[in-house]
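ESCALATION

Customer reports they have been waiting on this structure for their group meeting. Please prioritize. Original submission:
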Amino acid sequence: MAIPQLSSAQLEAARAAATEARRARANLKEQVKNGDLSFTDALNKAVDDETLSRIKVVDLLRAMPRVGVTRAGEIMENLQIAPNRRIRGLGRHQVVRLTELFK
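Update from on-call: job pushed to the front of the queue and completed.
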């Protein structure tokens, strides 16, 4: 499949949309980091939002206070979640186990 040729206006619109999506994902992680939003609330919010659902689970875990690279990796391994899994790719049982872990 060939890559479509986009006009300058279309490229600019795509860039703006991508920037807005990155800001929304960064904002969610920042809210979790600051304690403004619990992990469970962030997970539920991300499941319902197409843009936020593209956050990697490990990145959302690492946004939690006192969860770094090592602990996030251990959590992912214990819950049998692949390291590259995104929120939208989680199964219902994985979501339940994650929410139980951070109640």
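Sent to customer with the following note: The mean pLDDT is 92.
Escalation resolved.
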